[in-house]
Specification:
This protein is of the alpha+beta class and 491 residues long. It contains 16 helices and 16 strands. It is 40% helix and 20% strand.
Length: 491
């Protein structure tokens, strides 16, 4: 991938980037925003369509109530002010996959405004303002694949036309590609917790456009911005912004002028390329949608929607740190998804030591899931199983080595921890002093060279002897007891 290290240094010392993000989120309604057609992804092209979403003359839109409730819920989670009255407008432009020749959206009177997302940049915390959250319909999709000459042929699939969207527009307050990545990560996390979208970037449920400019550090006036479109991962958005900052700095330092344009990011090359000039803003000729009444979300309806608002990730992390005595890092990992957090809390409430449960989830369970390419929902070991195994270690019934072996067996057999533990005969950690002393004597007698090194002052050899005794006991010896007995015998 192309890199520009010198330019990055120049950007950090001489110039500062100004970044704003526009995020489109598809809402998880069963039907489209203005008609009853299905929103199911993956249906054969042009099968989930009707006169309304095909834009046929005389067809009238009817607003989907659930779409309004989902949009309002998301806006509340993003700390926005919900406007009691908002207006739908026609955004006029021609594009092959926009059959009506306009998109029903919201313009000067959106559903919600003036929100924020809290992010962390290193040790610092920062709020990124959200200008607005508004409702609109999605356009169709142009398909260029599957033709002998893709440059000359394009097919149109209108299944996506009319799927409900919210557009979340940030303030131009993001100061680096890393901040943009953190903002998007937190935004996706919040939306997933509300349950209003699956945020699947591969299926287009979450899409992001980035506006980026640079200016001399300390200058108040914005530089000329470019827009980066159609980037399909947060990592690529961060890379694209990093490249574009360097490119703009290089243009300015060489005496040129940055052109206002739309650019595409090539992830294979790590570069952005000009797509179309945008010297002047589009004149979309917005005007109020004549076929839809003003949308009124009154206090009573807002209160009903607010009852569905879950505990959000940041608040949940803070509570879990206090309630379970885990670290902030533990809480960050364990709230990565609502499902994981729910399962952890269910286990932590019944476990003797929630901190040990947290450690096992991160150290033993998540590592195995990642190695197998599985999600937490596909884990053979339930959170109840993790809690049970944690209690066995806590009580000294099994050792850490035994637990690891049982987890391996659980993944091999596709069975939960309690079932595997029963199948193996519920083995217990050995605390029989005479039996342990016998194994210790055997290990010491079998390793005279290491014994000599230990008695010559190399005390680190103690770990070697502990390991050998644990191996001889097949992990069933109590490590603390082994340590104490070995120290006494070797001394």
């Amino acid at each position: 991938m192309a890199t520009t290290p010198d330019i990055s240094i120049a950007a950090s010392s001489k110039y500062e980037p100004v970044i704003g993000l526009e995020v489109h989120v598809q809402l998880l309604t069963a039907s489209k925003i203005f008609c009853s057609c299905s929103t199911r992804f993956g249906a054969p092209p042009n099968t989930n369509v009707c006169p309304v979403c095909l834009g046929l003359p005389g067809a009238l839109p009817v607003l989907n109530k659930k779409a309004v409730e989902f949009a309002t819920l998301a806006a509340m989670a993003l700390n926005c002010r919900i406007n009691e009255t908002s207006i739908f407008a026609r955004k006029n432009y021609f594009y092959p996959d926009l059959p009506k020749g306009y998109q029903i959206s919201q313009y000067d009177k959106p559903l919600a405004e003036h929100g924020f997302i809290g992010i962390k940049t290193g040790a610092e915390k920062k709020k990124i303002g959200i200008t607005r959250v508004h409702l609109e319909e999605d356009a169709g999709k142009s398909l260029h694949e599957g033709f002998p000459d893709a440059a000359e042929k394009t097919a149109i699939d209108l299944n996506r036309s009319g799927v409900p969207l919210i557009e979340i527009v940030s303030q131009p307050e993001i100061a680096s590609p890393d901040e943009a990545y953190e903002y998007l990560t937190r935004l996706k996390e919040i939306i997933l917790y509300t349950g209003v979208s699956d945020c699947n970037m591969e299926e287009g449920s979450l899409r992001c456009d980035a506006n980026i400019s640079v200016r001399p550090r300390g200058q108040k006036k914005f530089g000329t911005k470019t827009e980066i479109k159609n980037v399909n991962s947060f990592r690529f958005i961060r890379e694209a912004l990093g490249y574009e900052i360097g490119r703009q700095v290089e243009v300015i330092d060489s005496g040129g002028e940055v052109t206002q344009e739309t650019r595409l990011y090539n992830s294979n090359e790590g570069k952005t390329y000009g797509m179309r000039s945008k010297e002047q803003a589009h004149d979309y000729r917005y005007f109020p949608e004549p076929d839809l009444l003003p949308l009124v979300v009154d206090e009573k309806w807002k209160a009903q929607i607010a009852q569905s608002l879950p505990e959000l990730p940041e608040a949940r992390r803070q509570r879990m740190v206090t309630e379970y005595g885990i670290t902030e890092y533990d809480a960050q990992v364990l709230t990565d998804s609502k499902s994981l957090a729910d399962q952890f809390e269910a286990a932590a409430k019944v476990a003797k030591n929630p901190k040990r449960v947290a450690n096992l989830v991160q150290g033993e369970l998540m590592g195995r899931l990642k190695a197998k390419g599985l999600e937490i929902e596909q884990s053979p070991i339930s959170m109840k199983g993790v809690a049970g195994s944690a209690d066995l270690v806590e009580s000294g019934a099994i050792s850490g080595k035994m637990l690891k072996d049982f987890y391996d067996l659980s993944f091999e057999r596709g069975k939960d921890f309690p079932a595997v533990y029963e199948e193996e005969g519920r083995p217990q950690q050995s605390t029989d002093i005479s039996a342990l002393e016998e194994k210790i004597d055997e290990v010491i007698a079998g390793n005279p060279k290491q014994l000599e090194q230990y008695r010559a002052g190399k005390k680190t050899m103690l770990g070697f002897f502990v390991g050998q005794v644990m191996k001889a006991s097949k992990g069933q010896a109590n490590p603390q007891m082994v340590n104490e007995l070995l120290t006494k015998k070797l001394g």
